[in-house]
Design brief:
180 residues
Length: 180
């Protein structure tokens, strides 16, 4: 059996953590593994990586916040990951992944607000259509990143974020306080 490297980025449902699982198959156990992660807007950082396990990283690990400081939310955007093992460093793989935890939280808040509002049917229907359009843009950004179309991914993400901000600012006119 030949060594085949693969990574899975798993949702942690937490803005402060990034979960990376080793989905590789190994001819023999690697002596050591290395993961180089480049978060959007930050320099690349080399992380120790435990092969065949789920590895969870936070802002301190990714050098976004200093050691001992309060952990901060990891930025949304395209993360570049280069995984290699020793002694087979030539077999390194590169993956691009669009992280969307912050925009997903923003989307969820808008969605929940919509569900709790009492609007007339036509306005509420249009709001649902608007949210579905935003959702498709978010998923398009993820798909583009998964296919190494980084520029397109960033454009789709920015459009989704702008649409979502506009939606939140100009909701259907309901106050959302009907249940207080």
């Amino acid at each position: 059996m030949a060594t085949t490297l693969d990574l899975l980025v798993l949702p942690t449902y937490n803005k402060n953590t990034l979960g990376v699982n080793d989905a590789s198959t190994y001819a023999s156990a690697p002596a050591s593994a290395s993961l180089v992660v480049t978060p959007p807007g930050f320099d690349a950082v080399t992380l120790s990586f435990t092969a065949s396990e789920l590895n969870v990283f936070d802002s301190e690990d990714l050098e976004i916040s200093d050691a001992g400081e309060t952990l901060v939310a990891l930025p949304d955007g395209v993360y570049k990951m280069v995984y290699s093992i020793i002694p087979e460093a030539a077999d390194a793989i590169t993956k691009y992944v669009m992280r969307i935890e912050q925009i997903q939280e923003k989307f969820d808040a808008a969605f929940m607000k919509l569900d709790m509002m009492e609007c007339d049917g036509a306005i509420k229907t249009q709001s649902k259509i608007d949210l579905m359009s935003i959702y498709f843009f978010i998923q398009g950004a993820v798909s583009a990143a998964n296919n190494c179309a980084i520029t397109e991914s960033n454009k789709l993400y920015t459009s989704a974020n702008n649409m979502l901000t506009y939606f939140i600012r100009n909701n259907c006119g309901c106050t959302g306080v009907n249940y207080l």
